[in-house]
Amino acid sequence: MARFVIFVLFSALISGQATAFAQDASSSGGAASSPASSSAAPASSPLPAEVTAAESAIAASDWKTAEAKLDVYLAAHPTDARALFDAGYVADAQNRNDDAASLYRRAVAADPKSFEAHISLGLLLARQNKLDEARPELLAATTLDPGAADPTLKARAWRALARIDSNSDPASASNDLLQALKLTPETTSDTLLAAQLAEKTGQPLAAAAAYRRVLDKDPDSAPASAGLAHLLMADKRYPEAETLLRAALAKNPDDLTLTAQLATVLADQDKAEALPLLQKLHAAHPSDPDVTRMLAAVLADAGDFAGSDQLLLHLLAASQDDPELLVSHAQNLVHEGEFDQAYAVFGKVTQIDPANVDGWSGLAFTASKTAHPDVTVHALAMRSRYLPENASTLFLWATAYDSLHQKSQAAAYYHRFLDASAGKLPNQEWQARQRLLILEK
Prior knowledge:
Layout: H1 4-14, H2 17-24, H3 49-59, H4 63-76, H5 81-93, H6 97-110, H7 115-127, H8 131-143, H9 153-168, H10 170-183, H11 188-200, H12 204-217, H13 222-234, H14 238-251, H15 256-268, H16 274-284, H17 289-301, H18 305-318, H19 323-335, H20 339-352, H21 357-369, H22 373-383, H23 391-403, H24 407-421, H25 426-439
Helix pairs in contact: 1-13, 1-15, 1-17, 2-7, 2-9, 3-4, 3-5, 4-5, 5-6, 6-7, 7-8, 7-9, 8-9, 9-10, 9-11, 10-11, 11-12, 11-13, 12-13, 13-14, 13-15, 14-15, 15-16, 16-17, 17-18, 18-19, 19-20, 19-21, 20-21, 21-22, 21-23, 22-23, 23-24, 24-25
């Protein structure tokens, strides 16, 4: 079964990056602080009446009034950093993301030391998944004086940086998170992120401990349960993972990651419950390719090769050159006795991915079944670059050379096969001995 699917699901769903970035934004918009606390203008400079009136409207969440007053003022004062930030805040609060980003950028250009403009722009870009653009803005915010703003707002910048760095540089992300914790107390989200970072940096025990700390505080936490289950599965502690996942699903019955993990754990233990669980999951998420892959794999394990292949062909319609899908499809064809079709598919796999061992193994086998001994020899030679020989491949070598009338090579491989098989493949062993009687006359 294609067990890698659960790791794809875990990475995609447990990180919750977009949600976390959204939580870093204020309740009224993406800006880290409201205009009332802005330090964009020096404290000694009196605020223009129009800006004061706009900020009063912002405090009352009267966005239209604030926008109208700021538009008039900015038409005459297009480089006023505070007014530009205020206008960006208003656009952010109304989810006009492009307008907000443009205004924040203008505020940064007008005052490169504006903490609020940098952090608000960084958080907005992070929520839009424009991480390469967000990072320098957030990094700049960590170096600036918050002024009249809440100094702990820097912790938001550090936390957002930690999430951005978590995929590309987990060690830097850990340092980012540490900087945030110097400014504000640890949150549940911090502990979850610390667990994920520990796992990525090869510290599974630390990761498990962090997940358990979250569960001690919040037994209903689906992300913590999924994270801990992921570690247990990687360690092949399937019964423990099953117990954890069943309890978590009782509290979060519609959670996709937990359900997929339980299905994988059940399949790894050869429990029949895996199939109906995956069928239910697929019915609820028919367009999810990872769920479809998992169901196709379990159906194949259960011997329903036609049902498995129907799902694979649907996936291949959208990803026709996916080597993993093609190998699974070809293997189903072999089980259905469609050797010519399987031979063609395995050939395509080896062209797309010359290092695909399953492709070369399948090509060697199907070539032997379709009377292409020269291809069998080539495929076996390519496979041997990546994996050692076994009894099955030695038998394929022998029969291919036999078909090519290369008697000495065939006899040598028949002998190697008999030594390796040692009674495990009685039918092939009988054939090998019969051929040796003829070849060694």
